[in-house]
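$ run holo --ligand "protoporphyrin IX containing FE" --emit tokens
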Amino acid sequence: MALVGLLFTIAAAVYYIPWIVKLISNWIYQYPYIMKLPGPKGLPLVGNVLELAGDGKTTNSSTAPLLFWLECAEKARAEGHSIFTMTALGRTMTFPLNGEMMKAICESPEQLMKGKDYDYLKAWVGEGILISVGDKWKERRKFFSPMFHFSMLEGYLDTFNKHARIFQQQLLKTEGNEIDMFMYVKRCSLDIIVETAMGCDFGIQTNPDHPYPHAIEVYTNFSQRYNTEPQMWVTAIWYLLYHREYKTALNQLHGLTNDIMNERMKRVQTGEVDLNAKKRPLIDHFFGLHEQGKMTLEEVHLEINATIFGGHDTTAATMSWVYWALATQPHFQQQCYEEAYAIFGDSDRDCTHDDLKALEFTERFIRETMRIFAPVPLIERELVSDFKMGEYVIPKGTEIFLNAFLLHHNPEAFPDPWKFDPDRFLIENVSKRHPYDYVPFCAGHRSCLGQKFAMQEMKILTSWVLRKMSLHSDRNLLDNGYATDVVLKPTLGSLMTVKRRVHPE
Ligand code: HEM
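-- output --
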């Protein structure tokens, strides 16, 4: 037994040696810079790991980093700084704290490389639009862009309405019972993205046992744990304890995309599907590029997966905060409802492009929700060279954490930042701010391609719900905690009850 233990320790040490060497050499290079930068000075090499972990009592492990960063941001701002830098286990992280610093990095044509935490995604989405850099990324962005043009977005409205209608029916069935809205809206946003990306209906909302959402859950869970649980890095432990379940989920994800692609390709070959149709799913657009020799089928497959990854959890997390903000603030809910009632009355009709424009207050409500609860709280760029941000010089290898949560709680841009106020998004107020102060979809070169798509979907999902039901909670808006997953999730869940409306109210 002792021998096994010894061998195991030696194997683990050998495994970690390259990592330790890199950690030390990074430290030696970056240390002189870090000492001049504002931010908490942690212990040598381990840095601020303890603060990131929290005390384990008052905060859970996925909330603690955010609370620590908020504290650092407040301190740095009070000292007149517009960034702060911290370190953890050989990683150096710099956080921009206002729009000007955010702009510097987002508009830099050189600093486009994603951070290490994206590596976990590669097995599912490959190295395409979400992760690649340089010419490959530029080409992919060009391939995707036409599908998010205004003319194409109109074509998605039928799909949004179809699934929003089912969503509404599912919620009405729960009347009187407390539900976690996140699960319901997640299934709906998956149905929407699967149909707009692959042209097929998985019917996940009416079949919650569908293997697809389960496989996504297992895969993303494992991948995130991999970043924070070092025992998983030891090959023997990985294969013994985790690999099988992980691989099964991954195979399921790839298998389902493959099946859909094969089926659709057959329909393309028989002429049943027109690749140039005005209303077409993303997959047909990519098949067209494949026919022109610009994408392999494997690349089509991975970009479809990337779209599904980028387009469902983000929308679901945002919408669960939107419903939470409605349920806990009845006066704002009433305003959104009245706006929807003025447009749709008692009807069951679909939401049109003109209706979307008329949902003006609803849009401001959603934007304010995305300010307070930034749905993607963390985006990373790894510096490929030393980089000047305003008066600060940040060393090569530093990860710039583009943390929308910190920017959105900057009191200079958003006075009284925890106050929920949709009027912050009136045109006259928006024009007073730096354009990079508000960045739920990131900004600059790598901004979200799907932001107009998402905004349309979210306005439709909000209005379809309020047209037929009211949302109720005994809690207050800020009673919920927030956990930094890939997306920001409410730690209490998005708990509420729904009640069928009797019109007019
Ligand atoms: C509320 C919903 C959404 C939010 C908050 C959101 C947020 C973001 C953010 C912050 C990024 C930058 C990520 C990074 O640089 O690491 C991003 C990128 C991206 N998003 Fe979204 N997103 C949403 C919905 C969507 C939807 C519905 C789609 C597709 C249908 C989509 C497609 C993409 C793509 C393709 C990129 C990569 C852009 C690039 O690197 O050039 N997103 N999104």
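-- notes --
The domain at 98-378+428-500 is CATH 1.10.630.10 (Cytochrome p450).
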